[in-house]
């Protein structure tokens, strides 16, 4: 093995490989557990890693530094060593970690606890550029769903919000909006807060520490209103954090966890022996993503969880904004905006109903108006015909009857006429008189019949108009 330029050249059974200069420096430096743990910002995570490394060292009966040096030697092929022997040595700790996991289970630890114990030593190897590949299907990576976590719902957040002070309300509201991990949340600085005088919801992107994935979150109108009140209270100079501690750092995760428990207790929320942690807000947002209809993929994008690249392509910033608005309509701390939204929706429906009723009434009135025009036209036509009949009666029949007072008077006139004209055949006169009388009676009957037909028609049409007018009103 020799050093050439900026790379470490290792002679292997199958040839030579060059290791990047950065990895070479790591391998040449002193391997230290403390140095690794000092890079972990989250105290709870750091504590878990420390505990897992300690237990693995007890199981393997070597110090952490001895384990790291052995791992380094396993990844370097010795001179004359065949490929199979080298690969077996390189896979040593993959097998040992599986055995360690089984040992933790045999000692009575739960599946999740046993898995968590293995994470510390695996992350230690990864930090020094010597990651361990766990085989597919290994029990080491398996977890089981537990019921220890409190099923936080927006109703619980509202109850805590009602009894909280301004800083606590900002924490509750931002946690509900963003669903970040506790380490990313407490690390937010004042300078990270965007300009609040803009249309809500306001984009708030965060690079997550654990998965190194951007969380494309948003600040709701509720949160923005609270921040405008809260930010002026941060008068302490020298502390850049949004939620500062008494010193120059931010609040700790332990402090925040205790705060949530205290608020839940003060709000008299029954915990039923469950544990309320800050992570419950993350679970609540992801659950609400499903319930509100925006989808789990969009929820993961908002909180900064890794999603397949194929799904990531379809989620633009604009689409996420719409989905966040949809999510907040489903889940808001203050119920008033939701009530106002419901009232607006009810008013909109009422206006649409009134518009439909107005259109229907207009159609009815237009129809009735058309029918009225038809009736009016028929009235005019019948009135004209009636006038003609009346004129006939007045001008032709009545004058004759008035002249002789009656049909009998007319008969007397004809008799007198006959007596004065003796040369006229008596039979012819009778026949003429009979025809005249029958003609007069026939015309009179026809006029009367037509008169009553017209009056009957007018009466029926008048009743129909009255009935339709009453129905439309």
* Radius of gyration over all CA atoms, rounded: 50 Å
CATH domain class name of the largest domain: Mainly Alpha
Order of helices and strands: EEEHHHHHHHHHHEEHHHHHHHHH
Mean pLDDT score: 79
CATH topology type of the largest domain: hpI Integrase, Chain A
C-alpha termini separation: 104 Å
CATH superfamily of the largest domain: Intergrase catalytic core
Low-confidence spans: 1-17, 21-29
Shape: rod-shaped
Number of domains: 3
Question: In what order do the strands lie side by side in the largest sheet?
Answer: 1-2-3
- Residues in helices, as a percent range: 55-70%
Count of individual beta strands? 5
Major β-sheet, in short?
Answer: 3 strands, antiparallel
Give a description of the structure.
The protein is mostly helical and 473 residues long. It folds into three domains: 2-135, no CATH class; 154-334, Intergrase catalytic core (hpI Integrase, Chain A), CATH 1.10.443.10; 354-472. The chain has helices at residues 21-28, 33-38, 43-60, 64-74, 83-90, 92-106, 111-127, 154-162, 166-178, 182-186, 221-230, 253-266, 279-291, 296-303, 309-312, 317-330, 336-404, 407-420, 426-472, and strands at residues 2-4, 7-12, 15-19, 202-207, 214-219. The protein has a three-stranded antiparallel sheet. A two-stranded antiparallel sheet has the order 4-5. Strand 1 (2-4) and strand 2 (7-12) form a beta hairpin. Helix 13 (279-291) packs antiparallel against helix 14 (296-303), helix 17 packs parallel to helix 18 and helix 17 (336-404) packs antiparallel against helix 19 (426-472).
């Amino acid at each position: 093995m020799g050093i050439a330029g900026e790379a470490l050249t290792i002679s292997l059974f199958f040839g030579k490989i060059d290791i990047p200069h950065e990895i070479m420096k790591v391998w040449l430096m002193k391997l230290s557990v403390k140095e690794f743990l000092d890079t972990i910002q989250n105290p709870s995570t750091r504590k878990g890693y420390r505990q897992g490394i300690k237990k693995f060292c007890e199981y393997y009966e070597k110090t952490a530094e001895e384990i790291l040096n052995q791992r380094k030697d396993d990844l370097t092929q010795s001179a004359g060593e065949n490929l199979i022997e080298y690969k077996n040595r390189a896979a040593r700790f993959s097998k040992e970690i599986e055995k360690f996991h089984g040992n933790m289970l045999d000692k009575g630890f739960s599946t999740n606890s046993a898995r968590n114990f293995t994470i510390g030593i695996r992350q230690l190897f990864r930090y020094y550029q010597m990651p361990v590949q766990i085989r597919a299907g290994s029990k080491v990576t398996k977890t089981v769903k537990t019921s220890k976590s409190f099923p936080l719902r927006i109703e619980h957040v509202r109850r805590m919000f009602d009894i909280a002070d301004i800083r606590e309300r900002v924490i509750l509201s931002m946690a509900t909006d963003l669903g970040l991990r506790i380490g990313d949340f407490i690390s937010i600085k004042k300078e990270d807060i965007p300009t609040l005088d803009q249309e809500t919801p306001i984009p708030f992107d965060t690079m997550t520490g654990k998965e190194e994935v951007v969380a494309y979150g948003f600040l709701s109108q509720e949160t923005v209103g609270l921040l405008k009140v809260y930010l002026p209270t941060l008068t302490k100079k020298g502390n850049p954090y949004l939620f500062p501690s008494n010193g120059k750092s931010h609040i700790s995760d332990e402090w925040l966890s205790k705060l949530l428990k205290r608020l839940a207790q003060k709000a008299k929320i029954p915990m039923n022996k469950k544990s309320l942690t800050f992570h419950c807000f993350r679970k609540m947002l992801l659950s609400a993503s499903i319930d509100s209809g925006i989808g789990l993929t969009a929820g993961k994008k908002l909180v900064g969880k890794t999603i397949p690249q194929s799904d990531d392509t379809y989620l633009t910033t604009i689409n996420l904004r719409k989905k966040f608005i949809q999510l907040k309509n489903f889940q808001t701390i203050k119920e008033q905006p939701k009530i106002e939204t419901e009232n607006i929706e009810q008013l909109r429906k009422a206006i649409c109903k009134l518009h439909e009723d107005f259109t229907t009434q207009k159609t009815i009135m237009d129809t009735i108006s058309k029918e009225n025009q038809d009736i009016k036209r028929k009235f005019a036509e019948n009135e004209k015909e009636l006038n003609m009949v009346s004129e006939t009666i007045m001008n032709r029949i009545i004058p004759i009857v008035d002249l002789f007072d009656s049909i009998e008077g007319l008969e007397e006139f004809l008799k007198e006429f006959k007596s004065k004209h003796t040369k006229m055949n008596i039979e012819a006169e009778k026949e003429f008189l009979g025809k005249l009388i029958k003609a007069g009676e026939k015309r009179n009957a026809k006029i009367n019949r037509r008169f009553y037909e017209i009056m009957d028609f007018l009466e029926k049409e008048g009743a129909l108009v009255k009935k339709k007018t009453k129905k439309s009103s």
